[in-house]
Design goal:
Number of strands: 4
Number of helices: 4
Largest sheet: 4 strands, antiparallel
Order of helices and strands: EHHEEHHE
Number of domains: 1
CATH class: Alpha Beta
Distance between the termini: 7 Å
CATH superfamily: Dimeric alpha+beta barrel
Strand content: 25-35%
Length: 94
């Protein structure tokens, strides 16, 4: 499992110009079965995605996020090896 931590590097007014293509990009990640959960940080300084797959593939995919392409955000990718989950979330330990 991976945590894709997105941090905005530009003012929100610039980030908001790219929100629709970014959300379409996120939808494709779900359709591909890579993204498990996502949302924005509070306060609104970026977002995070829980993902599965290969690190190199996720790094390549994150580089295609419209936010990154536009230069308004960057990703930090953290691999997490789950050893325990709450009941009902066992499928995350893949």
């Amino acid at each position: 499992m991976f945590i894709l931590s997105l941090t905005y590097t530009a003012p929100l007014s610039e980030v908001d110009e790219h929100i629709e293509p970014h959300m379409a990009w996120v939808a494709k990640g779900y359709e591909a079965g890579l993204f498990l959960a996502s949302g924005r940080k509070e306060p609104r300084t970026g977002g995070a995605i829980l993902a599965r797959g290969d690190r190199a593939a996720l790094e390549a995919l994150s580089a295609t996020d419209p936010f990154v392409v536009a230069g308004v955000a960057q990703y930090d990718i953290v691999e997490l090896v789950l050893s325990r989950t709450a009941p009902g979330l066992e499928q995350l330990k893949v």
